[in-house]
Write a structure and sequence with these properties.
The protein is an all-alpha fold and 222 residues long. The chain is 87% helix and 0% strand.
C-alpha cells in the first residue's frame, strides 16, 4: 500500500503548511502593527497576497488529499485484487503533482479575484463536492463492512458479532465525519453567506469571526 503513504505524507505537508502560513502571516502583522518592521504599502500587500495564496493552497491541497485517501481506501476494499495495477506509484506521483499544481493555480486565481462572487462560488462548489465525495465513499465502505460482518456472523452463527462490529464502525465514522463537519462547517457557512447575502447585518456580524473559522480548520489539520 505504498501509494497510500505518499498521499498521507502529502496530507501532512499540506496541514503543516496551513499552520506555518498562518503563523508567519500573524507574525508579520504583529511586527508591522508594532512598527518593529516598516514596509511600503505595495510590499506589504504583495506579502499578504503571497501568504493568502499559501494558506488557500494548503487548504485546497489538504481537502484534496483527504478525498484521494478516501478513494484509495475505496479501491483497496472494492477492488482489492486489482489495487496494485490500478493505483501504481507512477499514477500516485501524477495525482500528487496534479493536486499541488491545481491547488496553487486555483488559489492564485482566488486571491487575485477574491471580490468576484463567481470565483468564490467555484471554490465553494469544489469544497462541497469534496465533502460529499468523502462522506459518500466512507458511508459506502461502512455499509460494506457491516454486510460482511453480518455474513460472517451467519456463517459462524454468532449473532452478537455484527452488532459490535457495526457499532464500532458507526462510532468511528461518526467521529471522523463529526470532527470534519465541526471544523469545516463554519468556513463553508462563511463562503455561503459571502455569496448569498454579503450586505446583510447578520452576515457582517458573522464575517467578524472569520479568524475563528480559520482556527477551526487548522484544528482539523492538527
Amino acid at each position: 500500500h505504498s501509494p497510500m503513504y505518499y498521499f498521507i505524507c502529502c496530507l501532512a505537508v499540506s496541514d503543516i503548511l496551513v499552520s506555518i502560513s498562518n503563523f508567519v502571516e500573524t507574525l508579520f502583522i504583529l511586527l508591522i502593527d508594532n512598527r518593529v518592521m516598516i514596509l511600503q504599502d505595495e510590499t506589504a500587500r504583495h506579502m499578504d497576497n503571497v501568504m493568502d495564496v499559501l494558506i488557500c493552497c494548503s487548504f485546497m491541497a489538504s481537502l484534496s488529499f483527504l478525498g484521494v485517501i478516501a478513494i484509495d481506501r475505496y479501491i483497496t476494499i472494492f477492488y482489492a485484487l486489482r489495487y496494485h495495477s490500478i493505483m501504481t506509484i507512477q499514477r500516485a506521483v501524477v495525482i500528487i503533482a496534479a493536486i499541488w499544481v491545481i491547488s496553487t493555480g486555483a488559489s492564485t486565481i482566488f486571491i487575485a479575484f477574491d471580490d468576484n462572487k463567481t470565483v468564490v462560488l467555484c471554490l465553494l462548489t469544489y469544497l462541497l463536492f469534496m465533502l460529499t465525495l468523502i462522506m459518500g465513499l466512507y458511508m459506502h465502505m461502512f455499509m460494506l463492512a457491516r454486510r460482511h460482518a453480518r455474513a460472517i456472523s451467519r456463517m459462524h452463527r454468532k449473532h452478537t458479532a455484527p452488532q459490535r462490529t457495526s457499532l464500532k464502525g458507526a462510532i468511528t465514522l461518526s467521529i471522523l465525519l463529526g470532527v470534519f463537519f465541526v471544523c469545516w462547517g463554519p468556513f463553508f457557512l462563511h463562503l455561503i453567506l459571502f455569496v448569498t447575502c454579503p450586505n446583510h447585518p447578520f452576515c457582517h456580524c458573522y464575517f467578524q469571526y472569520f479568524n475563528l473559522c480559520v482556527i477551526l480548520v487548522i484544528c482539523n489539520s492538527v
